[in-house]
């Protein structure tokens, strides 16, 4: 095993982006990944998911010998002083976060540290939690180290939440709005400040509980903005106001800000739905009223329902009609279809006995493997033109930039009835009308 400064546990989204970006800053890292197939893929230079810029940077890091992939956690603990924990924290049936993978990594670290300490004397390790974890997790892990560390020496546990978005993860990591360091000791702060020494942004140093809460509060607030604008959008529909202009008018107010005010089919993905459920579960546990967040979840859950109402209003009978879903991923520039609104919309259309055709530039393979039963009832097309040919209506569900470049005149000319519902407020209505669409309707 080569000598590295940093070990990263888990080569998922957060882990791999963290490792590759830190390698680009000159650090030497190893990434510990248990999944053999993922490991082989990474060693051959490929990520298990699509993220712009990532594979190029991975190739550079590997070429410069700054990144290594291993399933040998012992070597990683032995070699690095800084251990980033980036494993998954998926939701349990009650909505709370499943921390078994985080605990497993800590047990592994303690086991190897105890072994190592029999032979060596040094300052011990800094374990940094980057996974999104409930408040109190770093504190519990520290207690675990103190109680069961058995000769493992001084292990410090810090929280360093990540705020990157899929699709722009590299840029978000390299140019963060802030870096949050939650720590109980000066050594942890100094080590993390040194890791991030080249980043030009505010660094907030606090205790671990506060750092963990910053992550949940940030995601919940962003999700609240989205559900809020979606509620306003429904009102706009009823009173004939234009939601895009309303959002723009609000966004000019610096206290509100223009971001995360795009109305549409609602939020999906692996973060917002999971983190909101986890935070509301914490609220219920501590008897704190979190109805506001429950409403945010409720408004979001109803978005596909609203879309169906609108479709029925516009297309009347859906049974037997062919409806095309353009976009399956929960947002553009990713192949991630976890918790994607498209699955819920497809389910509802099939229930109405419509024929569903789908096309997505990157997410079709993942969609088929994540929703096999649903996919068996959908026809997947090779491109957007083929998907829309002889269809009765199109629903645009993901704002992929390539969809803007389509020849919409050619598409409308080949449809049974040129109807499109833009569930992302993405395409220009005037252009659609010019292209022959009877109605460039929105939701
Ligand atoms: C989100 C946060 O934005 C990141 O800061 C955070 O680090 C990450 O979760 C995480 O916890 O790991 P992500 O889920 O990748 O990032 O994607 P976003 O860009 O936040 O979009 C989430 C969902 O909200 C998407 O379905 C998107 O289409 C939707 N959205 C976003 C809207 O409907 N309207 C908007 O105005 C913005």
TrEMBL record:
Pathway(s) where this gene product acts: Nucleotide-sugar biosynthesis; UDP-alpha-D-glucuronate biosynthesis; UDP-alpha-D-glucuronate from UDP-alpha-D-glucose: step 1/1
Annotated NAD(+) binding sites: 38, 89, 132, 166, 274, 338
Any one Gene Ontology molecular-function term assigned to this protein's record: UDP-glucose 6-dehydrogenase activity
One Pfam entry name: UDPG_MGDP_dh
The keyword Cell division appears for this protein: no
Highest taxon listed in the record's lineage: Bacteria
Record's catalysed reaction(s): UDP-alpha-D-glucose + 2 NAD(+) + H2O = UDP-alpha-D-glucuronate + 2 NADH + 3 H(+)
Keyword Oxidoreductase among UniProt keywords: yes
One record GO biological process: UDP-glucuronate biosynthetic process
Catalytic site positions: 271
Enzyme Commission number(s): 1.1.1.22
List of residues binding substrate: 163-166, 215, 260-264, 268, 331
Record domain UDP-glucose/GDP-mannose dehydrogenase C-terminal: where: 324-429
Keywords for this protein: NAD, Oxidoreductase
Protein family according to the UniProt entry: Belongs to the UDP-glucose/GDP-mannose dehydrogenase family.
PANTHER family reported for this sequence: UDP-GLUCOSE 6-DEHYDROGENASE TUAD
NCBIfam families: NDP-sugDHase
Protein's UniProt name: UDP-glucose 6-dehydrogenase
